[in-house]
Amino acid sequence: MLKKILNKFLILHDVRGVIVIRGDGSIVESIKSGMEYNDAFMAAVSTLMVGSKATVDNFSNAPPFMVFMEFPDYFLLLAPLREEFFLLVIAQNTANIGQINQEMKKNREDLVALL
Amino acid sequence: MKELPEGKSLGWMQAPASWISSHTVRFIGVVRVVIQDGAGFILIKKGKPLFHYFKQGTIELKGHAALDYFNSHPVIEFNLCKYTPDEFAWAMKLCNIEDHEPVVLQEPAVSGPVSREHSLPSRTAEAPVAKTATDTRIPDPVVVSPKVHPVDERAVVSGPVAREHNPPSRTAEAPVAKTATDIRISDPVMVSPKVQIVEERATVSGPVAREHIPASRTTDAPIAKPDRDNRIPDQVLVSPQVPTADKRAVEPQPVVGDDLEVAIFSQIRDQDGIVAIAVFNDHRTVIMMGDEDGEVLVKIARKMLETAKKMTPRLKWGPFVHMTIQIPSGNIIIAPYHDNYLCLLTTRTINIGHIRRILRDLQQKSAPQCVS
Fold first, then answer.
1. Between residues 304 and 333 of chain B, which touch chain A (CB distance below 8 Å)?
2. Comparing C-alpha atoms, which of B342, B362, B343, B287 is closest to residue B15?
3. Could you report the predicted ipTM of this complex, rounded to two decimals?
């Protein structure tokens, strides 16, 4: 069921991967298209999650946060779902961020219900 | 000293005093300096410091004495305030400086140069200054010191304006030794500004940061502001070989921190939603603009950078272009910028698309500097 919702993101133009991740960096569910989730990649994803959380902990009440990280050809979008759960979208730079955000809003409740 | 026109603030920064004149080639205005409990300014016209002034408690330093005092600190905190031709002319007048090159800026509001009437009979010939018709400010009467300043800082026609002012609360930490008139600086000696030679001349005592610049470090590079040292200072010897502004201007300039960058950053900061801008690296804050606590901002930015640096080699997607963390109160963005990193603090009104556009514009605007 979770994969089915994640697939709604994957079918968006130039989205290459979608991952549900915990705050400690562990992966709950993931799907991909046209890219490899090797160990190095997973380690990078965990680093992003843990590092971002550590950064936000510098603020007084550790507010909910969203991370956008851009590379020459790809970007990563990490958005909060529920307390310790986040959604990570991996896409090419040509993907439509607005569309991804909209899909997040539409499916957030369903995703949270499944966690 | 009479209050100078306020000008348009371009933001607060921390850098060595030598950085100011070498990075303000197109800047016309005043640089307001704050050192511990004292404050002062440097009046600048296109990279040339015309007048230095510093006051702490009852002690006033003017001209080279003030410059030496600024230079005795590895880093000073200052605010660049841009002047219109009118404001600049007014500031020149307040500092008793005659300038034969009227400032011409592309400001349609200025109708044309008109002679400014001044009520003081003691004032000598005044250069024509551009003045808007709407400006009806009347200058306060000033007392012109008859003492000619021993160190001529570009066409100072008489001693700087002196005004008695004795706030009782500021006597404890005031710089105590010499006033401007005590210091005579020999003819400029052509030495590199990067070498700090201490000699037994031009002694200035006063509150001075204890962190001395090591000989190997260039004084041109802006460095992070050290913690303020409120201990009672020892006497500090200031080298008379501190280079003049004109000499510094011909020194090779570092790429980052150019006045063009300051102008670009100011433009960005003026955009709606931008709260603060910082340029930093692993060791120091190079530029900081904005009212936010710069050290906290840069600390967070460094944390983000640490994450980005750990991730980048693992992903093999090339160098990271930018990273944004959005929290309910705003966005923090970091991006590589020349050899340093840029950090922007924005409100939530700015979205990712807007951030990407700002960064792209910035890269384009500052691209010619990469070549130099």
1. 304, 306-308, 310-312, 314-329
2. B287
3. 0.92
